[in-house]
Amino acid sequence: MELQIVPDPVxxxxxAAALFTERAIAAVAARGRFSIALSGGSxxxxxxxxxxxxxxxxxxxxxxxxxxxxxxRCVPPAHPDSNYRxxxxxxxxxxxxxxxxxxxVQGELAPSQAADRYETELRAFFGETPAFDLVxxxxxxxxxxxxxxxGSPALAESARWVVAAEHTTPPPPLVSRVTLTFSVLNAARQxxxxxxxxxxxxxxxxxxxxxxxxxxxxxxxxxxDLLWLVDQAAAAGIDQ
Length: 240
Fold this sequence. Notes:
Elements: E1 2-6, H1 9-31, E2 34-38, H2 42-51, H3 54-57, E3 65-69, E4 71-73, H4 83-90, H5 111-126, E5 134-137, E6 162-165, E7 177-180, H6 182-185, E8 190-195, H7 201-208, E9 225-231
Parallel strand pairs: 1-9, 2-3, 2-5, 5-8, 8-9
Antiparallel strand pairs: 4-7, 6-7
Helix pairs in contact: 1-2
C-alpha cells in the first residue's frame, strides 16, 4: 500500500481535492469522461465543499464527470442520513454537473431492489469491467469501508457488483445499506482512502502491518493504484 501522510485535516482535504481535479482532467482528455465513486463521511464532505470552490470548480470539466456512490443508506434522497443528500448539499448543487451524470442509489426502494437497479445502471455504463477512474473510500474504526462491514455476507460476494447489506451494530445509523462489492472496488483505476483522526490510528496500523481480515485491507485494485491519504493523527500508530 502506498501511504501519504499529511500534517492535518486541512492538508488532507486540499491534497484530495487536487488529486480529484488532476484525475478528472486527465481522464476526460484520455477517454472523454471521468467516473468517480463517492464516499460518505465527514472528511469527504469537506473535500466536496472544497471542490465546489472556484479554486477547483473552475478547472474541472463537469459536463464529463459522472458521479456514482460507493454505498448508500436505504433512506429517501432528502433524508439527513443520505449520502446523496450530503454530496448534493456540498458539491452537486454548486457546480454545473448535468442531471444525467448523477447516478444515485435509489435508497428509497427496498434494499434488494435498490441494489439490483444500481447494478443494472453500472453495467449499462461500464460494460464488462467496472473500471472507475477514481474511488473515494473511508476507514471505519471497526475496519469497514463503504458498507462492507466485518462479518457481513457481502464480503464473500464475487459475482454481484452491488448488494444490499444489513447493518445492525455500531457505528450508526443502524439502517440497511446498498454497497459496491470488492469486484467493483478492485477493478478501479485508482482507489483513494481518506483517513483522518486519532480514532482511526489503531486500525490503520493493523492494515499497515499486513492484516488481511479487515474489509478495508481487502481493497487491492488488480490493475490500478491504491493510495492511503492520512493525516498525522491517524498515522500515530505507524512507524515513520
